[in-house]
Design a protein that fits this description.
Elements (H helix, E strand, L loop, with lengths): L7 H20 L4 H14 L9 H13 L4
Helix pairs in contact: 1-2, 1-3, 2-3
Length: 71
């Protein structure tokens, strides 16, 4: 089965997710670069995912766990 490749829509959805997370976590006192780094790490870990529909949810969960000390 061929590996899924990101589409422009996937990129746009992940960018929206990134900006929403930055806004949320900076309001709680986390530096924007820290949030962006957590999002980038999560995206890198999930880059080979065959099903891309759930990436924003999985990225959000990963970032939340990392920034709250859960991971």
């Amino acid at each position: 089965m061929p590996e899924a490749t990101p589409t422009t829509r996937d990129d746009a959805v992940l960018e929206e997710t990134r900006e929403r997370l930055v806004a949320r976590w900076t309001a709680e006192g986390v530096a924007p670069d820290t949030v962006r780094g957590a999002v980038s790490e999560a995206c890198d870990r999930l880059s080979g995912a065959r099903v891309r529909s759930f990436l924003p949810i999985l990225v959000e969960r990963s970032v939340r766990l990392r920034l709250t000390g859960g991971a």
